[in-house]
Amino acid sequence: MARVLITSAIPYINGIKHLGNLVGSQLPADLFARYNRARGHEVMFICATDEHGTPAELAAAKAGKPVAEYCAEMHEVQAEIARGFRLSFDHFGRSSSQRNHKLTQAFAGRLADQGLIREVTEKMIFSVDDNRFLPDRYIEGTCPNCGFDSARGDQCDNCTKQLDPTDLINPRSTVSGSTNLELRETKHLYLMQRALKDKLEAWIDSKTDWPILTTSIAKKWLNDGDGLQDRGITRDLHWGIPVKKGDQPWPGMEGKVFYVWFDAPIEYIAGTAEWADANGLDDTAWERWWRTDKGASDVTYYQFMGKDNVPFHTLSFPATILGSGEPWKLVDYLKSFNYLNYDGGQFSTSRGRGVFMDQALSILPADYWRWWLLSHAPETSDAEFTWENFQASVNKDLADVLGNLVSRVTKFAKSKFGDDIPAGGAFGPQETALIADLGARVRDYEALMAQMEVRKAAAELRAIWVAGNEYLQSAAPWTVVKTDPERAQAMIRLSFNLIRLYAVLSAPFIPDAAQTMMTALNCDDWSWPEDMAHAMRVLPAGHGFTVPENLFRKITDEERTDWQTRFAGKRD
Ligand SMILES: [Zn+2]
């Protein structure tokens, strides 16, 4: 039994995420967690809401609520939607938790002890009209790297370069649009990432099995231009984790908070501590996942994220961990995703373009979305959601292939043989051939799942469904029953076991349908098909079953055009 630690990039607190966000981290992480649990591994799957920073402050102000109250409410909204999508987090934490406060302050103190923090008195942009220092992402201007005219002060969305607001050409406040900005003096803490460059580079070079998408992004930030830069880790804000050196005050830093990008990844660790707290466990329970001196040396740690988050996870967070000099677990495998586009353009939160997570669940159950999104995950390149493709995929893969097999077998068996799995006949050459084919395909499926090849794994799963359908089509028990009912009974007995096999294999992708199949089979044996000949005999003759409701319904052309119009973009 392996020990598998999985974290999904943590979604920001302000507002509901769209399907592109879902498939870029949480959903594939859930697939991987469910698969590893199904294989009997010990899994810790952590996600959280990312609650600090100015967007939360401004969203709370807009909603007329204190920011802490706003975040608590929005956390519950996001948690409810995550449950709706069956995201099987062991804990869905909050970066504003006391656990994260303490850990973030401890890391900062530790980094200072290691000589890796320097205090910098600098001039920051103060918006006179807004009467506040403007955090990086609330200043927009022209990117000095690529010339994009709406680059944010922290990062250019066009060329992904990490920026400082003072790098921008023609800066303006995005809070008010004001260009009445001035530089004012303020003091901040900087993490000396340059001093950690060699350590970081050696660590990244040791990751020979990482995808090129991941390592190339990391290497770019390590070496391009002036190379890796020291990074400000504090901000002039009220909402956030107060700057402290461990549990001690930090003279000169009163009233300031840590930068959200410093504390957010630490929440992966803090979220695991929150899990222990929520389950009445002591510190050893979470430390054995994170401290290599306290039991985590046999843990394999996987992170899931969109490509825009790669620099922070390959450089900034590892700099915190490596710089601490303490034996914290570093990521072993980092799975990053490209973007999902929406029907010929991009998803847009501000313009309400595309399907958001709450809307998706209001029109169809989670499994429909899970299947489409995972089977079209933007792995090697950006992918695109279109309603035509969604309709075709749901109707063909889920309704025609999988749903139809389940419905046909159970209805036929009930009408011909009653409420129990029939006992007649024995498996012949057709069944033996199918068992051999399925056995080989399941080994392929396992390999793809272990490698987090999400699309390919979905394609293999679909091929496994198709193999069963083809068997049924050519064996044709509904014809055979007229001349050789015993033989037809053996076919149907195998087909019931096929349904159980499909439930087990499909559960990581479509957990609700898998449960419906198992319930119809009156079965709770989720054991993995290590041996296919055995797996095809788990449900014996005489075992009772029921005919389930249709597993999947088809999407009509009328619905498709209706939804196309509805989600084209007007949401505020
Ligand atoms: Zn740029």
- What is the tally of beta strands? 18
Global shape: elongated
Strand order of the largest sheet: 3-2-1-15-16
Distance between the ends: 48 Å
Share of helix among residues? 40-55%
Task: Please tell me the overall pLDDT.
Answer: 95
For this structure, the quaternary state is single chain
Strand content: 5-15%
Largest pleated sheet: 5 strands, parallel
Helix count, per DSSP? Answer: 19
What structural category characterises the helix and strand content?
alpha/beta
Specify Rg, calculated over alpha carbons. Answer: 27 Å
The ligands bound in this entry are: zinc ion
Low-confidence stretches at least 5 residues in length (pLDDT < 50)? none
Description:
By secondary structure, this protein is α/β, with parallel strands linked by helices. It has helices spanning 19-38, 54-63, 67-84, 98-113, 197-205, 212-223, 260-278, 283-290, 310-324, 357-363, 366-375, 387-417, 429-450, 454-475, 477-483, 485-506, 511-520, 532-535, 557-566; strands at 3-8, 42-49, 91-94, 117-127, 132-133, 139-142, 151-152, 169-173, 181-191, 231-232, 234-235, 244-245, 248-249, 257-258, 299-306, 333-337, 340-342, 383-385. Helix 4 crosses helix 9, helix 13 runs antiparallel to helix 14 (454-475) and helix 15 (477-483) packs antiparallel against helix 16 (485-506). The longest helix has 31 residues, at 387-417. The radius of gyration is 27 Å and the shape is elongated. The two termini are 48 Å apart. The model has no long low-confidence stretch (mean pLDDT 95). Zinc ion is lined by residues 143, 145-146, 148, 151, 156, 158-159, 161. The site of zinc ion has 9 residues, from loops.
